[in-house]
Amino acid sequence: MPLELAFACPLPNGMHARPASALEAAARGFAAEVQLINQRTGSVADARSVMSLVAADIRPNDPCVLRVNGADERQAFARMKAFVEETLPHCDPPLPQQEPQEWLPLPRLLRNSGARMLQGTSVVRGIGRGRVVRAGGFRLPDGLALSGGVAAEERRRLASGLELLQSDYERRLAALGQGVERELVAAHQSLARDGWFCGLMTEAIAARGKTAAGAIAEAEAHFSSMLLARENPLLRERVLDIQDVCRELLARIYPGAKAERELPLPEAAVVVAETLTPGQFLALDRSRLKGLVLAEAGRTSHTVVLARSFGVPMLVGVAGIAGISESEPVTVDAELGAVVWGMTPGALRYYELQARRERRRSEVLQRHAAVPARTSDGGRLEVGANLVSSEEAGLAFASGADGVGLFRTEMLFLGRSAAPGEEEQFDAYRRVLESAGGKPVIIRLLDIGGDKPLPYLQLPKEENPFLGYRGIRIYRGFEPVIRTQLRTLLRASAHGRLRLLLPMVSCLEEARWVRGVMDAEWTAMNGRGGSCPIALGAMIEVPSAAFQLDELSRELDFFSIGSNDLLQYFMAADRADARLAGLYSPLQPAFLRLLKQIVDRLRQLGKWVGLCGEMGGQARHLPLLIGLGLDEISVAPSLIGELKRELSRLSAARCRECLENALRCGSAAEVERLLAAKDLRQAPPLVAPELVEVDCDAANKEEAIQIAVDLLHAQGRAVEPRLVEEAVWAREQVYSTGFGAGFAVPHCKSDAVAEGSLVVLRLKRGVDWGALDGQPVRVVVLLAMRESEGASGHMKVFASLARQVMHEEFRARIERGGDAADIAAFLGERLPPGT
Amino acid sequence: MKIVAVTACPTGIAHTYMAAEQLEKTARKLGHAIKVETQGAMGIENKLTQADIDGAAAAILAVDIAIEEPERFDRIRKVQVPVQAALKSPEAIFAQL
How does pLDDT run across B74-85, given as a tens digit for each residue? Predict the structure, then answer.
């Protein structure tokens, strides 16, 4: 007599791999048959098969029945009842990646284009196009026969492969503490012993003449397509687990045919993966890599740092990547934060307009790059470049870098089997120094360990690498490597203005030790005694360094704040943990106070101080950085032009006030609000020739609004162009701003607007605007106003324009006037001066 | 005829002022005297006093939103229209007065 228990599925995400493997573990070891019936669909699952449980498509609150039948059913039922009632509801703690993310709306033109797209967090901006290559996915190594083996022999190979895999999983589980990684390995293990999965492979050999390899490929295809058909995104993502297990199983059976470590890339490739280690990234052919799309959500992993320095557009936290097929041509749009494929004419037109806007934008930025960065009241803050390879130096200086604020030498050492020789290093250092043309270059000594392991140094794997054996801490242990690097740098110093930087300094002795080695090498090199004249500095990234600045200053010449690590150590918040993003914020008032204390003390000590973390790369943080009185910020080369432009609009005096106010704030959100205040910036004129287009080729209203917002974007007049566009459309929804006579005055009042602006488009062909008189619109005048500006300043100009546009004579002058400069000059004369 | 008017649109950036201009222009053309108050992003401008209103023959309220101090117009003959109507066919509004 079977025993039954009815219950509603208590899992917030339904039955997916992790709860299913917990259920499977509970059901194991009894003789009785244990079944789980989904009463919504009628499907019956074997509780001892994860795949079978997953296939039953049990969704949250689905009515379910647990049925136990067989020899030891009483004990089995008691155990299963306890599991379902007490353990199952807690089997699915929410994962940070699965939390619903709020994305900015995509531009209307693209959104309505019919192309397919997924959104994600953009961590390296830019746009890349290529064919999808799945990393970590399943790929059958070349040269394996899929069928035609001897069945008994193939069965034996499969069985021993499965056995080997099981014992490997056992070993890994024994070494792992509690946590997500353990759950993942456990889920893989239960897949590898899943009755359905193993049965399907055995059957493929027996009934369809497959080899073990053929059977694995068949099982992979079968379960992947089953999971991809599921509504639950968690299940679709589990395709990656199936692929991992199949790949590992193949590697056990065919050790010689291990799937290639280096992923072959087509001419232009976009790599799509659950996650990608820095080592895996470096193994890719970067000349062919056009974009990266990861499901994992971390923003500051070293893979991100690498991708940024190589300018590879990158998205993270993209849910649903399993739905993008291998070799599909895709566009990684890390400007918008979306991966787009299945292009339509509408989507292509969006990208045509986008390319035009980017050309304009880079022309504008180029003009700023060429001049030294000064605030509107003459304050100075150098903008340096962060480099990871000497090849980037040319681009950095072309973009207007005032120097190199951080050259990370570890990339010379990573991704190889032995340390680089002296000549190879010398070459790289000399190239950077020479391309600087006399500007200062800060080169950081090897910063390795923990999350950036090197095989030839054989650093042990650590429980907590960020608090471990890394940076300057390993120098004594690897003295020959450091000595060689120092010697090479001292030699290269003849080629430019070299300054040396030490990573992860947490106490004075560390710096003294390097100073000693440096002086000894210097003496050996030129045969005279005395101390080495090359400037030596320390990263301030361990909080303890911030509390011995006086002592460190006696040994060292300058300092560079590494804001990423300093913030992570100071707030005790892992920078890769998305749940802690609120804590891991450089706007935390306590962190700002720490920065203030550091910079003030170093100012008193007369030491140079820069900042080289992600904090410096955000234009909206500039008022704080200027207010601090830093000598330099150092950022990715691609950001330099934009930061210099923003800097020129800020007043140093106002920035100091802003910082003082920020130091008194109670939360990062309050600081954020301070930074949004308008009066920090000097406003550019409302009307400018750059905001007028007299031969506009917009084919419809969507394109016209897109082009108008693009002009604002290209001129740096939009904080967030997509929200400006949304605000303009929200206003159009009330009623059309086409008021007749071929004119439309779309407008918005939004703080996504950076600077109050007037855009004029004279269209080549009239477009339908849903105008009051039903006539096509030939002239578009966009009024963009900052909401927080309120009644002041620009509003008077807008009101005057609104009144004048009602007069035929005024409209005719715009419609029949000359070029952009002429129209702008006319408007400038007719409108009252803005304030 | 002496007329008073109020214009007010949702964002208060453009149509409030466009409608005001249109009403003034049309009044001039039709030979009326008009004073138009705008309630836009700059707040109330060219405010109508009670004396202005009491001395007028009629009021035009070209508004898409609730206006400030509506009680001023309690005792006067008035025509209320959407802002769009003031832009599109202003003469028709004057014809209703």
Answer: 999 999 999 999
A379 closest CA partner among A618, A620, A623, A621: A623
CA distance A201 to A473: 51
Residues of A in contact with B25 (CB under 8 A): 806-807
Q: Is the pLDDT of residue A178 over 70?
A: no
| Residue A579 exposure: Cα atoms within 13 Å on the Cβ side | 7
Calculate helix-pair angle for A820-830, A808-816, nearest 10 degrees: 160
Confidence of residue A98 (pLDDT cuts 50, 70, 90): very low
Q: Please check the confidence at residue A461 and state whether its pLDDT lies above 80.
A: no
Residue A831: count other Cβ atoms within 10 Å of its Cβ.
18
* pLDDT (0 to 100) of residue A297: 65
Most A CBs within 10 Å, among B13, B46, B63, B64, to test the A interface? B13
A188 is catalytic: no
Contact A803 B11 (CB under 8 A): no
**Phi, psi (rounded to 5 degrees) for B35:** -125, 125
- The three-state secondary structure class of A458 is coil
Report the distance separating Cα A442 and Cα A459, nearest Å: 27
What letter does residue A330 receive in the DSSP assignment? E
Contact criterion met (CB below 8 Å) for A45 and A64: no
Q: Which residues 6+ apart lie within 8 Å of A21 measured at CB?
A: A50, A186, A187, A189, A190, A191
> What backbone torsions phi and psi does residue A683 show, to the nearest 5 degrees?
-80, 135
3-state SS, A584-595, equals: CCCCCHHHHHHH
pLDDT tier, A106 (very low <50, low <70, confident <90, very high otherwise): very high
Annotated active-site residue B36? The verdict is: no
pLDDT number for residue B71 = 94
Task: Report yes or no: A753 at the B interface, CB cutoff 8 Å.
Answer: no
Catalytic residue among A91, A532, A612, A655: A612
What's the pLDDT tens digit per position in A787-807? 877 666 688 889 999 999 999
Q: Taking CB atoms and an 8 Å cutoff, what residues of chain A touch B8? A: none
Rounded Cα distance between A4 and A25, Å, is: 19
Residue of A nearest to B15 (CA): A802
ipTM (interface pTM): 0.95
d(CA A674, CA A224): 50
